UniProtKB/TrEMBL annotation:
Catalyzes the removal of elemental sulfur and selenium atoms from L-cysteine, L-cystine, L-selenocysteine, and L-selenocystine to produce L-alanine. GO terms for molecular function: cysteine desulfurase activity; pyridoxal phosphate binding. It is an enzyme of class 2 (transferase). It comes from the Bacteria. Belongs to the class-V pyridoxal-phosphate-dependent aminotransferase family. Csd subfamily. Keywords: Pyridoxal phosphate, Transferase. This is Cysteine desulfurase. PROSITE patterns: AA_TRANSFER_CLASS_5. Its EC number is 2.8.1.7. Residues 36-418 form the Aminotransferase class V domain. It comes from Microbacterium trichothecenolyticum. GO terms for biological process: cysteine metabolic process. SUPFAM superfamilies: PLP-dependent transferases.
Length: 433
């Protein structure tokens, strides 16, 4: 795999103009304009190294893993498990602490449904620690993506538990004073996002984990919007579980990771069952493998995992501190420019808040979808809609917003082109100067 075009060491400042050459799609033109891709919060572009890694596996080593004694099977298994080691290290974990999933949504559902299984007596004796009963409480936040909300709604409905939430302040920050009262002696699970996919604000993980641990609650972290942008160490964050998606961090679709503390994964009963996750099966019962294989029933995302490992090596070569510093500068430039455009209402414009390079906003008098189409005609790709966070939009009196999200391959010029195009939206639609 070739190294990123712009760096010679992981501590060097990155050169986003040079990095763009590593991403084939960024050289395309859209509607006759140079592509300005500001939708990485939805899905990132892929460097050639990631594309090559998948293609190379499929053309040279393609075989089922863990299931054969022939040469290709052994080679595929080795590449697959090497990928697990690489991706686990990226988030500070050991290989046995990383479960392959199809993405963060699958990881969150795995945890929720496995806890549901424990609640009806399935699993080993240690699984009883997860069992929920009527009146127990699950706590989420008002900032959650639907993927970290609906599984807990369903779990509450199945077990009689009560779903509660930590509210968000007008500036987009979590109301930590309220959190201290919402999280209480009946709380069994606290599930929250590391970075809001609408607000771009980094939530206070240490404070929420401390509140949860004080009452013995399990913590579940959605790291989809932090894994591509911040240096991560899940054990240091002291969460019980964490999830992330490959396609948001330069990797392929259809693969993600579930991190779990070793003793917590060991106690969790399985969710999906079938081949690959068993030791012994009779017609009446089955015994299950230890983690992570216990949670990896069926055919694995082998080429995708290998592609994700290539993405992680790419990010490591650039250096996550350099990525964060670069994107922080883009975030500041974008925020300043957005504030200068009349009729723009920023969501989550909290003074001094730690952020990633993502801003969502409302344009007075113009629907978000019209804004998106106007920008697209000028080659600027942004996200429009509720971003799978309807309760949060409702909190701010909106049904939809426009979201511009940057990544390591974006440049200051990308931001300026976006701001220049946006400044003409209201006049074009007759909504203001």
């Amino acid at each position: 795999m070739s190294s990123p075009a712009s760096v010679s060491s992981p501590t060097a400042p990155l050169d986003a103009d040079a990095l763009r050459a590593d991403f084939p799609l960024l050289g395309e033109r859209v509607n006759g304009e140079r592509l300005v891709y500001l939708d990485s919060g939805a899905t990132s572009q892929k460097p050639q190294a990631v594309i090559d890694a998948e293609v190379d596996f499929l053309t040279r080593s393609n075989s089922a893993v863990h299931r054969g004694a022939h040469t290709l099977a052994a080679e595929a298994t080795e590449l697959f498990e090497d990928a697990r080691t690489t991706v686990a290290a990226f988030v500070g974990a050991r290989p046995e602490q990383l479960v392959w999933t199809s993405g963060a949504t699958a990881g969150l559902n795995l945890v929720a449904y496995a806890i549901g299984n424990a609640s009806v007596g399935r699993g080993a004796p240690a699984s009883a620690r997860f069992a929920l009963k009527p009146g127990d409480e699950i706590v989420i936040t008002e900032t959650e993506h639907h993927a970290n909300l609906i599984p807990w709604q369903e779990l509450a409905a199945r077990t009689g538990a009560v779903l509660r939430h930590i509210p968000v302040r007008d500036d987009g920050t979590l109301d930590t004073d309220a959190a201290a009262t919402v999280i209480g002696e009946r709380t069994r699970i606290v599930a929250f996002t590391h970075v809001s996919n609408v607000l771009g604000i980094v939530n206070p993980v240490a404070e929420l984990v401390a509140l949860a641990q004080a009452v013995g609650a399990v913590t579940v972290l959605d790291a989809c919007q932090s894994a591509p942008h911040l240096p991560l160490d899940f054990p240091a964050l002291d969460v019980d579980f964490a999830v992330f998606s490959g396609h948001k961090m330069l990797g392929p679709y259809g693969v993600g990771g579930l991190y779990g503390r070793a003793e917590v994964l060991e106690a969790l009963p399985p969710f999906l069952t079938g081949g690959s996750m068993i030791t012994t099966v009779t017609l009446d019962e089955a015994s299950y493998l230890p983690p992570p294989q216990r949670f990896e029933a069926g055919t694995q995302p082998v080429s995708q995992a290998i592609g994700l490992a290539a993405a992680v090596r790419y990010l490591d070569a650039v250096g996550m501190p350099a990525v964060h510093a670069h994107e922080k500068a883009l975030e500041a430039r974008m925020g300043e420019g957005l504030r200068s455009i009349p009729g723009i209402r920023l969501l989550g414009d909290a003074a001094g808040a730690e952020r990633v390079g993502l801003w969502s906003f409302d344009v007075d008098g113009v629907h978000a979808h019209d804004v998106g189409q106007f920008l697209d005609a000028r080659g600027v790709a942004v996200r429009v809609g509720h971003h799978c966070a309807q309760p949060l939009h409702r909190r701010f009196g909106l049904t939809a917003s426009v979201r511009a999200s940057s990544a390591l391959y974006n440049t200051a010029d990308d931001v300026d082109v976006f701001l220049d195009a946006l400044s003409g939206v209201r006049a074009f639609f007759g909504a203001g100067a």
